[in-house]
């Protein structure tokens, strides 16, 4: 069956002093999650994540390529018959594209770490899994100088108990060079990785400290051959979990969340650690009402030692519920002095990754839950000083449209959105079966028709639904339906 993916796009473009800022969303008939992004030398972008739009059912990892202003170029799914996620994407131009994530379509456990490589055009060359019989997942990954990959995340396969931090180092063909498991009693996981120099890298690990019954972060420096060079634990009152860090010369800038007890509210925490002096400072932002959690740090390319701070924010002012994404400005003295941009749709908004661009801007990828109707859409937000696009122009009606995933049928479906009923018209003589699917994949209405039918949906809740059409048991189309 021929499959064509058509992405609905929202563009707000702002060009200032040679910089281009934009906010765009990409969606189809399923649930689409943006997780990782990288930029190529021609200023185009590669995005990875997970999507059910390609199949209409289970999520698959994908690569989406867009040009320098976010225009769609191509997209390809990867994976198997179950659930597959891309977390990070890396490219060696002329050699190919690497995507690191996790899967339960292949491998030996419930989930396994997943790495696949394509050529520059997205054609799959190989895919491999790593892990044991438990749950193994990738949280972050980097490309080594030899075009191999280092993946960090979590495992409960060695042995099968509480999760531990997991590091996997491969060569450029995906063959394992070495692995490390870090942790003990309680929960431990690796959250982020970055190269310190050409041959060594830093991994952030959140450890459960049994003596104090607290979570505290540690930083491990490894040589690419697997030998550990140093390990440092950063302490603070209460529990601390680090989500991300970036390095600038000999200084580590980290961000995460702080809480006292397991039921207490979350506060954003920031660390500044100097490897030469082995000294550090930390800042807990308790002035944000409700829950707040730092998720990413990235250097402001136009201001030395200044940073963009990406954080989730949830309180009574959240718009209107769930997490919103704010990007704060932090100066060279580590003082917070304002908000650069934000993503505040009606449902939860989740940041996937932020990177520097080649024009002194940065780009943030994630997913938005829009309109309160369910369904996630991939978003890209590219911004910098003087180029902060306005996300508020993206209304619910503009984000969602009736789009075909499979093109074998000539289908009309209207009105859409609808308040009470809608009609399906198909230019086909054979009988068809329709299934209306809710947000958790359950069929809530099933029927058969020939050429056209009127379907009553007055009794179902407002939200986003999928309408699947089958001919002789074979799926022929997947369409998006909005119930007002």
Helix content: under 10%
Indicate the radius of gyration in whole angstroms: 23 Å
* Main sheet record: 6 strands, antiparallel
Stated plainly, the CATH topology of the largest domain is called: Methylamine Dehydrogenase, Chain H
Indicate the mean pLDDT. 83
Spans of at least 5 consecutive residues with low confidence: 1-17, 395-407
Count of DSSP-assigned helices: 1
Q: In summary, what is this structure?
A:
By secondary structure, this protein is mainly β. Helix content is 1%, strand content 57%.
Overview of the structural elements:
The chain folds into 2 domains: 8-399, Methylamine Dehydrogenase, Chain H; 411-483, Macroglobulin (MG2) domain (Immunoglobulin-like), CATH 2.60.40. The model is unreliable at 1-17 and 395-407 (pLDDT under 50). It has 484 residues and is mainly β. The protein contains 1 helix and 37 strands. Strands 1, 2, 3, 28, 29 and 30 form a 6-stranded antiparallel sheet that branches. A 4-stranded antiparallel sheet has the order 4-5-6-7, with no helix packed on it. A 4-stranded antiparallel sheet has the order 8-9-10-11, with no helix packed on it. A hairpin with an 8-residue loop joins β13 and β14.
